[in-house]
Amino acid sequence: MTTDELDLRHLEAPEPMLRALAAADRLAPGETVAIVAPRLPRPLLMELAQFGYDAEPEAPRSDGSVRVVIRRPDDAETAA
């Protein structure tokens, strides 16, 4: 499975959050997308959790940026 990656480091707020949420919304159940943010996007992580998405941030890179893999749960997972 290939994960698309969106580099959002060059955008000004609130554009990174809006683009990340739009990308998550386009996911089919079980699909993933990765975003790269200039730092840990805590508000985005909270918003994704409220909508039922799985979001796994990786360790910060040397420049402080963080890659987050966003996954839309399968229909069977949301029903359980």
Describe the structure.
This protein has 80 residues and is an alpha+beta fold. The chain has a single domain (4-79), classed as 2-Layer Sandwich (Translation Initiation Factor IF3). It has helices at 15-25, 42-50, 75-79; strands at residues 4-7, 32-37, 54-57, 66-71. A four-stranded mixed sheet has the order 1-2-4-3, with helices on one face. Helix 1 (15-25) packs parallel to helix 2. The longest helix is centred in the first third of the chain and has 11 residues, at 15-25. The two termini are 24 Å apart. The mean pLDDT is 92.
Give me the count of strands. 4
Summarize the main sheet.
4 strands, mixed
From the helix content, strand content and strand pairing, which structural class follows?
A: alpha+beta
Strand adjacency order, main sheet? 1-2-4-3
Distance between the termini: 24 Å
CATH topology: Translation Initiation Factor IF3
Radius of gyration: 12 Å
Tell me the overall shape: globular
Tally the helices.
3
Can you give me a brief rundown of this structure?
The protein has 80 residues and is α+β, with helices and mostly antiparallel strands. Helices cover 31% and strands 25% of the residues.
